[in-house]
Specification:
By secondary structure, the chain is mainly alpha-helical. Helix content is 75%, strand content 0%. It contains 9 helices and no strands. Helix 5 runs antiparallel to helix 6 and helix 7 packs parallel to helix 9.
Length: 241
């Protein structure tokens, strides 16, 4: 399994995955940087970091997952290399499990980058304009906990997007589902039923109602793991992609 993961990591290193991993968190940091410079009064760290986490979970994370899963799948669909890979003397499930692990690992790194880049952006803006520099304690443990919960709640979304991306040679179905899921998550933000939409589950980690947090985390994380296993089994048993 380690050998398969090593190959997948090298493939990602030669793709645009690294650019995506840096670009998405950077855009959030740039947004926060200019928002702080435009502000007229100092705000606590909690406000700035929760805002960054909200932008990540609300829009940038779903779009990043859509792009990342399409990219990972197209590395094999593009050159039509699935037949070669599936003919190798190793269990087929390892091929799909390795791709899922790489996607999740990269998403976790992007989540950490959102924290790091946002901290750097707010700190830099505060140094440029001290009158509006962030106030209060910087509770890294709490911010990291929220990002970890968003990652867990997003597992079902990742599983759905990766399953579709690997199942269909065209990248269009995955993009349609990702864009559509994000759209309905945005327009259904205030709806109670929105907590059951996979693309809205991560942002519910910022909800004030405990039931929304617990429901989204339980469904997103629990069903996400189940869906990833089912995806691996289903794709490994298919003879033609």
């Amino acid at each position: 399994m380690l050998a398969v993961l090593s190959v997948e990591a090298r493939k990602l290193n030669r793709s645009l995955a690294a650019l995506l991993a840096v670009a998405a968190p950077s855009l959030i940091a740039v947004f926060g940087f200019f928002m702080l410079l435009r502000s007229t009064s100092a705000q606590p760290w909690d406000m700035w970091m929760n805002s960054a986490a909200g932008v990540w979970a609300f829009f940038m994370m779903p779009m990043s997952v859509t792009a990342l899963t399409a990219l990972v799948a197209h590395m094999e669909h593009g050159p039509k290399s699935w037949d070669h890979l599936r003919a190798l003397p190793l269990p087929r499930w390892k091929l799909y499990a390795a791709k899922a692990i790489c996607v999740l690992a990269l998403l976790a790194l992007m989540s950490a980058a959102v924290l790091a880049f946002s901290w750097a952006a707010v700190s830099l803006a505060g140094a440029i304009k001290p009158a509006v520099a962030a106030t209060g304690p910087f509770d890294l443990a709490q911010y990291a906990r929220v990002m970890a919960m968003m990652f867990g709640a997003g597992l079902l979304m990742v599983a759905i997007q990766l399953w579709i991306a690997l199942r269909y040679a065209s990248f269009v179905p995955g993009l349609v589902v990702g864009i559509g899921g994000t759209f309905f998550a945005v327009v259904a933000t205030a709806a109670k039923q929105g907590v059951f939409l996979p693309w809205q589950m991560p942002v519910n980690m910022l909800a004030t109602e405990a039931w929304r947090v617990n429901t989204a985390l339980s469904l997103g994380g629990g069903l996400g793991l189940v869906a990833l296993v089912l995806m691996t089994v289903h794709l490994a048993r298919r003879e033609v992609l």
